[in-house]
UniProtKB/TrEMBL annotation:
Residues 1-138 form the Resolvase/invertase-type recombinase catalytic domain. CDD domains: HTH_Hin_like (cd00569), SR_ResInv (cd03768). Pfam families: HTH_7, Resolvase. Belongs to the site-specific recombinase resolvase family. This is Recombinase family protein.
Length: 192
């Protein structure tokens, strides 16, 4: 059986989410597990998909970052699937499919994953160096938090009679963030 898994981090990534599902269906997936959750959060649908898979099945994803948060995580998932006799097929890894059911595919996955992780580490190092330099020159102020940028809009919507839960939904923030803006003292009491 071909089992698909689609994931995006946020509901704002709807087009990408739909594209993943379309590509998995086109590849012949008979069952598709899907969720919109950060890769660092608990991924209930991923766990359900792995539990559902049986020996001889093939687990499909469109890209490796939809499945795993790091090379270590990716290889751990591959090991779990292999222990069940399930292969992994990544439809596009640098434009080419990678299939762990053969040694070349497994090698390619490991090498490309390691290169991606290495590049990410270098990028983060360059970013830290740039921030340190900018701080030293007095040019770095840090980012303005999303909620702080939207505080005026939250207050306007509240004045228009919009409920906090609806404000949070419209602005794409947590309801607790809305409460912190409209009543910081109450939010502080709840946190204590």
């Amino acid at each position: 059986m071909l089992i698909g898994y689609a994931r995006t981090s946020t509901v704002e990534q709807e087009a990408g989410f739909e594209a993943q599902q379309r590509d998995l269906q086109a590849a012949g997936c008979e069952k598709i597990f899907k969720e919109q959750v950060s890769s660092v959060a608990k991924r209930v649908a991923l766990e359900a998909a792995i539990d559902f898979a049986r020996e001889g099945d093939v687990f499909l994803v469109t890209k490796p970052d939809r499945l795993a948060r790091s090379v270590f995580d990716l290889l751990a998932i591959v090991a779990r699937l292999e222990a069940k006799g399930v292969g992994l097929l990544i439809l596009s890894m640098g434009g080419q499919p990678v299939d762990t059911r053969n040694p070349t595919g497994k090698f390619t996955l490991t090498m490309l994953g390691a290169v991606a992780e290495f590049e990410r580490t270098l990028m983060l190092e360059r970013q830290r160096e740039g921030i340190a330099k900018a701080k030293g020159e007095g040019k770095y102020k840090g980012g303005v938090p999303t909620v702080a940028r939207q505080a005026d809009e939250m207050r306007r919507l509240l004045a228009d009679g919009v409920k906090p839960a609806e404000i949070a939904r419209r602005l794409g923030v947590a309801r607790s963030s809305v409460y912190r803006v409209i009543d910081p003292a109450a939010a502080a009491r709840e946190a204590a």
